[in-house]
Write a structure and sequence with these properties.
Length: about 140
């Protein structure tokens, strides 16, 4: 299955994750990316459609051209799509995965403590809502 747009599946209750999504939306001038909170039915269906098991809310997923990346490699894929200067960060993908995923897991483990957690999935404002998949917020 191949998507028309790169898709980011993220923890919709995580303040840090939502800040990253807002950053990507702001920097994505060509409006390439689509998003869905991992808590949504749409996100879980996308994972099933790609034969990808749901890992946890600590995992960000990046789906592009039928391929699913997760954790640090998802982040690198997102930065690669944003272009320069952000694509420079994708060079870290050449480090051993146990290192990059180790850093990712450390941040994921502490993100609620450092940045906070919402009681509900954070709804994007009306101007960018069309970038979110499947009427998640209708």
């Amino acid at each position: 299955m191949s998507e028309k747009y790169p898709i980011v599946l993220y923890d919709g209750k995580c303040n840090f994750c939502n800040a990253i999504v807002n950053f990507v939306i702001k920097k994505d001038k060509k409006k390439k990316f689509r998003f869905a909170p991992i808590q949504s039915k749409e996100a879980r269906k996308l994972l099933r459609d790609h034969n990808e098991a749901f890992a946890s809310l600590h995992t960000v997923y990046y789906i592009n051209e039928g391929h699913v990346e997760k954790r640090s490699h998802a982040v690198f894929g997102i930065f690669r799509q944003l272009g320069a200067p952000y694509s420079m960060f994708s060079l870290f993908r050449y480090l051993p995965k146990f290192i990059t995923d180790g850093v990712y897991k450390f941040i994921a483990k502490h993100r609620y403590k450092w940045f906070g957690e919402s009681d509900h999935i954070i709804v994007p404002d009306e101007k960018v809502r069309e970038r979110f998949i499947g009427g998640v917020f209708d």
